[in-house]
Amino acid sequence: MPGENLSRxxxxxxxALLSVEGxxxxxxxxxxxxxxxxxxxxxxxxxxxxxxxxxxxATTFADLIAPSVTAVSLNGRDLDPGAVFDxxxxxxxxxxxxxxxxxxxxxxxxxxxxxMHRFVDPExxxxxxxxxxxxxxxxxxxxxxEQPDLKAPFRFEVRAPEGWVVWSNGVGELADGVWKFxxxxxxxxxxxxxxxxxxHYVTDSYERVFEDGTRLEIPLGAMCRKxxxxxxxxxxxxxxxxxGLDFFHDHFDYPYxxxxxxxAFVPEYNLGAMENPGLVTFREExxxxxxxxxxxxxxxxxxxxxxxxxxxxGDLVTMVWWDDLWLKESFADxxxxxxxxxxxxxxxxxITFANNRKSWAYRADQLPSTHPITADIRDLEDAKLxxxxxxxxxxxxxxxxxxxxxxxxxxxxxxxxxxxxxxxGNTRLGDLxxxxxxTSGRDMATWSRSWLQTAGVNSLTxxxxxxxxxRVTELAILQEAAESHPELRPHRVAVGLxxxxxDGAVERYARAEVDVExxxxxxGELVGTEAPDLVLVNDDDLTYCKIRFDEGSLAALRDGxxxxxxxxxxxxxxxxxxxxTRDALMPARDFIDLVLRFAxxxxxxxxxxxxxxxxxxxxxxxxxxxxxxxxxxxxxxxALRELRLTEPGSQHQLTxxxxxxxxxxxxxxLQLLQGLLEGTAKIDGLEVDQELRWAFLEPLAxxxxxxxxxxxxxxxxxxxxxxxxxxxxxLAARPSAAVKAQAWAAVVESDSLSNALVEATIAxxxxxxxxxxTAAYASKYFEVIERVWGERSIQIGMDVVRGLFPSxxxxxxxxxxxxxxxxxxxxxxxxxxxxxxxxxDDLARALRGQACDVGAAG
Length: 858
Known about the structure:
Number of strands: 28
Low-confidence stretches: none
Oligomer: single chain
């Protein structure tokens, strides 16, 4: 039988054969504490599955990834575990019409964030457990049929160490040493969940009385490690949770269906969060140990609401297979921002969406691995990689357009009908389109073909013709597409005309909406208007496209970008300029110059943080190598200038402080960082808390100013799990060949590090100032990645393949090495090839950007 990678065809065959009536799962987690980790630490898992077969006498398999199986029984017949279990599948032959499978196994605790993850807190030695399954890791915890369309109710029971509390999807209670949980509604295996340990737990409740007089009460809970309890602002988590539940009840007309609503903030989490019904899990970095900006609170609120939207889009109604992953992720991404803007204090969420989320989508949609929103997912490895910018952010962008296309009321009515018709079931694309056709009267098939079933991003450029009196005689929009994905889509766009007012502000004075069709569309409504300084295509961000500028508009932005008064318009211009830089149409040094001149006037803190990230990327990847030193000096000078000018104690000051640390490299800059750490230097209003101390320490380590002893002393100040991750990153960041060799070996040649420490080590290893130190690892990378992919879990494999790709060795030689590997490894795992192909494409893009920047130097 095949290994761990389930194919779509196998899933279809099994779904046609089986229907699952229910699971009973008993776990014994008492082995989580005590003992040693000399070998794989395991726990007992006993599963009973009752299911029906459409073909008596047929053969199928159950899924289980475990070190060993003690016993297997099918319909009362004891099977030989050695004969039927191959490490990932249990062979089931001669099925009856009604079947009962019992599997007694020893399953392994995880250190990679997959399955049952076990974490030991270095601060107090306490052990914490949680599960993470998507797309197919529940089989690491109990035997099952691991595919989303074989839904069933689950009954769980858990034996845990004394003093622990255990949570699962349903309400649980402890009786005679066993935690027993209420049976779930029919749900997919990948959204079942457990959290267990001495977690700090806070409770609240949500109440709602509906128009018909019925009353709904939802118990709320929130938890984190005890070491983070003093930082846990659970009141704000509950506030956003209640606001979200109100919003979704107002608009979905389907009460929250899963009883309680616990939210667990857990350590070493691979994702942002996971929508397990009744027990949502989040990365604990959403509990802020130091001072952060409002952008961080907005991001957390968005994730809380994203996961809440999944309770309906994904949990109540689930896609049949991962091809239609967008049916949950695109909707949750869209609804997260939609609900946040309308129900919480974060009313500028669409600005963040336009500037941040869509940037992720634009990058993904230009990679050679781009795919339609409704993707072709052949197997589980494909599925794992498709949790990407297209499935999330492009899909959400397209749904934002869909709301404008069919109308808000028709969209929400379609959602309501979709939930009621398909509750606890599975759907495909057509199921959603049919209800939207009903509610809107629109032809959804044509819209779907253009937007959901094709890949690539269009570019829209204005073309302006003026008469002698300086008025517009013609304004057209030119639409282009890449040769690889030539689809020209229909776009509903707003075109804004901007000019400078007498007080110096750049403001919109005319606007028109138009349907863009084909390569050229005339905007007749704007003929006769006064000549604009700036033409902004896709004003108000109505469609998904790359914005381009005519020469006059680009000149106006160079002179007065910071004078644009509208926050969203300014954010859209910044995003468009970044796309020009990535596409080698604007030199990196020009983009950096714009950041230096105008970022200090940016009022939206989320946009400012994106500008800092983009400027750093422009310097690291797209600037000509010979100019990097000068560019770094200019960025550091500009960051320090703004740091000293911003309001003391403000979130802008904190943001500039972090950016200054990220780009500091000169002796004076490093001395200032050292002084801020030691208390011998001060910037009025800047509080250097523990998280900021680590941000200052990393560049000091990377430039050889802070040695191992200094890093150890900082860990002594912050001897916590978070501090340990920072310490590992700083240690790997030191400028030493021996350090780089040690870091490489720890990640590539050993599996002793947890997922979080693998990530930290890679981040420290790949310092942009250490290109010469890491040059020798370019060839080693291509020698080892296939072995690493075969030996390690898919999550660690992805981290290594992405994180250690020699992108800093930005030369034609590295590009040729990647091409040679791809040419010679045609039979390598498709998911591995995709990762290398994406990294290779980023490298090629960087080289084009550098060539553009060299040209700008004359």
